[in-house]
Amino acid sequence: MPRTQTAFGVRTLTLLLFLLIPSAAYLWHFGDVPRFGDLHDDSLYFVSAKSLADGGGYRIESLPGEPPQTKYPPLYPLLLSVAWHIDAQFPHNLPIAAWISWLALPAVLLQMAALYPALGISGGRAWLLLFLFAANPYVILFSTQLLSEMLFLALSLAAMLLAERAAKGSAGAAVAAGVVAGLAYLARSAGLALLLAAVIYLWPLRKQRRNAWLFAASMLPFIAGWMIWARLHQTATNDPSLIYYLDYVRYEIYSVSFRDLHLFLWKNLDGFLWGLGGLLIPKIMDSQFLKILAEVVAIAMISGVVRLFRRGHARLYALFSLITAVLLVIWHFPPNERFVLPIFPLALAGLLVEAEHLVGMLRTALRHRDRGQRVVAAGFAVVVAAIFAGSLAIQLFMDATFLPEDTRQHRLRNIDRLAAYGWIRSRVPAEASFLAADDVLLFLYTGHRAMSKPLPPALWYRMDHAGMVSWMTDIPPFAREHGLSYFLFAGVDLRQGVANDDRDSIETAIRSNPDLSPMYQAETATVYRLR
Questions:
Q1: Helices 104-118 and 94-102: angle between axes, nearest 10 degrees
Q2: Bridge partner list, 435
């Protein structure tokens, strides 16, 4: 018997290693992380890690004044600081940091391999879901960038698996689950959802009141410790652009007003469904049809999760996902594939359950006496099969062609930016600070302090195009207010939500602004000095 278990363990490990090949191969080919800085969070994590490694405390070194980092909990930057200790030279340490971050993916897959049998999904069905997760283009992308989602997912799954043991009466598991959940919170503050979900699950649902208290008592010190530290080190400011860097809650209060609440809720709900379904039907083109199809897939996922819940499976994970979804819908940024990633393993299980339910209904219909019923069922089966095959084909296309090629284009686009950074290092006075969309990158490459001018979310939610154009082009007053003497413009930052139609207006207004004096110009990057 021990030999059989060992053989099964070796076989499982071998299959899991095989599933790591797509992401490891991508990272091997693009170890220079050409997309670094695209999402802004990744560069902020890394510069905060630099501060920890330098012994300067937990700060945002790139910002003028180097304020304490009170927005992101410290666990992930602390992990990335290992790369700075190994090699203090940027960007040579980027590959080290990327591989360190990637190590969370094997941990996620190991725990998913334990999770699915607990949900009644085993054998080939479980391996199918593991394959769909590991080969997913967004999983490959997020696991190879400097982002905290994969670490958070690994810790969250571990906490939930331990909490399931606590639900069976293990006090030690309850304490361990609370500690791991606390670490998940220190990886992403969204881990707060674990506290509420676990307490509800252990107490009212599983009648484990004592273990619910033990879980909460073990997790709360992590939450309280970070909140107290952040409060004591909070920078006193009413400037929304600084609050964006320093405080999630205050920026939420600034961004979401009662007047706009309905817009936030409606667009975020739409974004949540699109992001969840988009994990299986990727957004490779601007297509309303694909969007509707992705949202239908998301609804099928949710329906399957409800079925699992009713069967008594995945109740803790379902509660965690529900709370997470509510937080995303009321947040000041539309949810996308990245933000729904923590619930993706459960969503895959839900889709499988819903698909099996649908197949059972189709089999019954195909055996119906009425020929018309059989024809309709056959047609519906063909449509469902086409959707599944098309989704798989798009994902494989993204894995093999679209994602690598798009990353190569990022590498090419970086050439102008790196040339501009080189000019800044050699020609701009050391004490000068910059306004730049990629402010942290500018600091890491040049040593010059910098900040961006984040677009107020309400302008995007209202689709206030005139307001967005005005905000993006009113550069000199903002720069003077923050003591910024130079402006690096590398084109309109569409990541802030600016529409393509407004791009020309913004670029024309900036290039014709008499208060901006061009000092250096390349094809896609211009350095201006404020007159």
A1: 10
A2: 451, 487
Q: Which two tokens stand for residue 458?
A: 């309400």
Model pLDDT for residues 263-296, shown as the tens digit of each residue: 999 999 999 999 999 999 998 888 899 999 999 9
Q: Does the pLDDT value for residue 2 go beyond 70?
A: no
Phi-psi region at 520: left, alpha or beta (left = phi > 0; alpha = psi -120 to 50): beta
As a whole number of angstroms, the distance between CA 280 and CA 333 comes to 21
Task: Return the structure tokens found at 130.
Answer: 């593991």
Q: Are 115 and 70 in contact (CB under 8 A)?
A: no
pLDDT digits (tens, 9 = 90+) for 36-62: 999 999 999 999 999 999 998 999 999
E strands present in 352-485: 434-436, 450-451
Please give the Cα distance from 35 to 141 (Å, whole number): 10
Which residue reads 């999402």 in tokens? Answer: 39
CA–CA distances in Å: residue 225 to residues 151, 186, 312: 20, 10, 35
SS3 528: strand
Residue ranges and CATH numbers for the domains of the chain are 2-364 (no CATH), 408-530 (3.40.50)
- Helix, strand or coil for residue 1? coil
φ, ψ (nearest 5 deg) of residue 517: -105, 115
To the question of pTM greater than 0.90 for the whole model, the response is yes
- Per-chain mean pLDDT for the chain: 92
Which among 108, 107, 101 is positioned nearest to 148, based on CA atoms? Answer: 101
The Cα angle at residue 156 between residues 59 and 327, in degrees rounded to 5: 75
- Residues whose CB is less than 8 angstroms from the CB of residue 422 and which lie 6 or more positions away in sequence, other chains included: none
**Least confident piece of the model among 178-182, 190-194, 466-470:** 466-470
Cα separation of 442 and 37, whole Å? 10
**Which helix H or strand E contains 317, and what residues bound it?**
helix 315-329
